[in-house]
Design a protein that fits this description.
about 240 residues, alpha+beta, Arc Repressor Mutant, subunit A, Alpha-Beta Plaits, four-stranded antiparallel sheet, about 25% strand, cytoplasm, TACO1_YebC_N, Probable transcriptional regulatory protein D3H55_11590
Length: about 240
Amino acid sequence: MGRKWNNIKEKKASKDANTSRIYSKFAKEIYVVAKQGEPDPESNQALKFVLERAKTYNVPRNIIDRAIEKAKGGIEESFDNLRYEGFGPNGSMIIVDALTNNVNRTASEVRAAFGKNGGNMGVSGSVAYMFESTAVIGIEGKSAEEALEILMEEDVDARDILEEEDSVIIYAEPDQFHAVQEAFRNAGITDFTVAELTMLAHNDIELPEDTQAEFEKLIDAIEDLEDVQQVYHNVDLG
């Protein structure tokens, strides 16, 4: 798989903690999924998933509650889910998921972020075919062999199970996301270091050191945009 998920998550959390950007992104996403369905995670699987992700990023409870209460109220905000695809230096590939109430603004800002930082936008489908939607769940306190045994006992399938530093990372089909978590909960594991539905590249690439710095600047510029929720790419940043 090539991704060190805990390193990626810690880097993002550390960067976002200084600006509270991650909290505002989660607040928007929680509002949207709660508004689209029931504002109750037990009857709204999409909301349940977002709340599980928010927990791994230590999003404060008051922010979560405020977003859900907003969804229950009479305030109506319309948001569109958008996906952009593009290229960075040395053939690197990037997917950008956004949530916006102004499509023209978001498209312009994403295009500018690419153009001003050594990248360029592609057409729909130009990059996504090189990625695969994947559930990623991380746990602590178990070996990869023990994690596999737990999943086998619950008759839950996984694509791959890898040990990364102090965690075990499970890669599974997206529709197995909740089943994997429930299997571990039944085994007494209730905290997850990672709980993501992501886009994994079929093959990661490595960039020269100077080009890697340029690439990271491009990714930072895209992630800094208010409407951008997730950024996926095929570069192994080590």
